[in-house]
Design goal:
By secondary structure, the protein is an alpha/beta fold. The protein has two domains: 175 residues, Periplasmic binding protein-like II (D-Maltodextrin-Binding Protein, domain 2, 3-Layer(aba) Sandwich); 101 residues, Periplasmic binding protein-like II (D-Maltodextrin-Binding Protein, domain 2). 52% of the residues lie in helices and 17% in strands. The protein is built from 16 helices and ten strands. A five-stranded mixed sheet has the order 2-1-3-10-4, with helices on both faces. Strands 7-6-8-5-9 form a five-stranded mixed sheet. The longest helix is centred in the N-terminal third of the chain and has 33 residues.
Length: 342
């Protein structure tokens, strides 16, 4: 039996159906591809930091090793001039995260803000003296010229004063002759012999150690006598809880990248050789002192342990510094320490 050839009309209809199927298949492939691309798009995170601060070392490690991308984050580092500028940038929405202390966070929460804190460093300052100074204890500082980094409300200074009161019965503020100045200037004046002792931040104390100076007291070492359990985080990454709720991957991914970076900095001396230009270390001894100081400050505790230490330290500071330092509350504001971290 013979069949007639398809008509032109039939061929046209078939061609149109095939074209529709091809367009549908292409659209499906494009949508699937776009969906995968969207799912793989890293979460953006803007971190505002002091241009020459020690935090920049860790952020450099994160970016150098691609740890942000490994954890699904596109990190943007925004250098800022000073601590006040970082706070303004966070409050104004110019950055998503900064590094600051828990005192600032607690005061902000008392005022209705929702900022929260994840420990970055337990590195604390030290009271440094010359090895031949004859100063062997706090009582030997009577009448001595004592340089103090920051202001009369500096956390380390207030805790040292409290320790002095409890161990010698005398307030170091009244016993010695304190002078407050910026950390680099204090080191310079101390090395020139214009100061008998200096209470400085950890990285400046490390530079003094590299030049043969010795610690009379390490701030972390006096904390147990003040009723502070464990080790105390001094500064941390700070962000709003609202931002974390909207961008959970950005926050948790960055914290994971930070932990990975700190592990590299803890275990690899070669990494510190690479970082040397960024640290400003002029010799091997200074680089080693900065490296060792940073490593001692890497947080090891859980968020709940950090909470306990910070709450106890807050009470000490509230007694010593009053409302001018801690604000209207004598206790740490709830939520200051973010419990989403380990």
């Amino acid at each position: 039996m013979s069949t007639s050839a398809p008509s032109q009309r039939d061929l046209t209809a078939v061609s149109r159906r095939l074209a529709r199927w091809a367009r549908a298949a292409l659209a499906f492939v494009l949508l699937a591809t776009l969906g995968v691309a969207a799912a793989a798009e890293p979460a953006k995170l803007r971190v505002g930091v002091l241009k020459f601060g020690t935090v920049s070392w860790e952020l450099d490690v994160i970016r150098h090793h691609g740890l942000d991308r490994k954890h699904g984050v596109a990190l943007e580092v925004i250098p800022l001039a000073n601590k006040d500028a970082t706070a303004i940038a966070l409050q104004g929405g110019a950055v998503d995260m900064i590094v600051t202390d828990w005192l600032w966070v607690s005061r902000q929460r008392e005022s209705g803000a929702d900022y929260t804190f994840v420990a970055y460093s337990e590195a604390a300052g030290a009271l440094m003296v010359r090895p031949d100074s004859g100063i062997r204890g706090l009582a030997d500082l009577a009448g001595k010229r004592l340089g103090v980094a920051g202001s009369p409300l500096d956390k380390s200074w207030l805790m040292l004063r409290t320790h002095s009161l409890r161990t010698t019965g005398r307030d170091l503020k009244e016993m010695a002759r304190p002078a407050f100045a910026a950390p680099p200037l204090l080191n310079e004046k101390f090395l020139q012999g214009e100061l008998d002792a200096v209470l400085n931040f950890w990285n400046y104390a490390a530079r003094l150690k590299a030049q043969g100076m010795v610690p009379l007291l390490e701030v972390q070492d006096i904390l147990p006598a003040l009723g502070v359990p464990g080790r105390l985080p001094l500064i941390g990454y700070v962000f709003s809880e609202g931002f974390a709720a909207k961008h959970p991957g950005a926050v948790t991914g960055f914290i994971a990248a930070s932990r990975d970076a700190q592990a590299i900095m803890r275990d690899s001396d070669a990494e510190w050789t690479r970082l040397r230009p960024l640290t400003g270390a002029r010799d091997d001894a200074t680089l080693a002192a900065l490296r060792d100081g940073f490593r001692r400050g890497i947080p090891a505790g859980s968020a709940s342990e950090h909470q306990a230490a910070i709450a106890a330290a807050f009470k000490v500071l509230a007694e010593a510094g009053g409302a001018e330092l801690v604000g209207s509350s004598a206790t740490l504001a709830p939520g200051t320490v973010w419990q989403g971290a380990r």
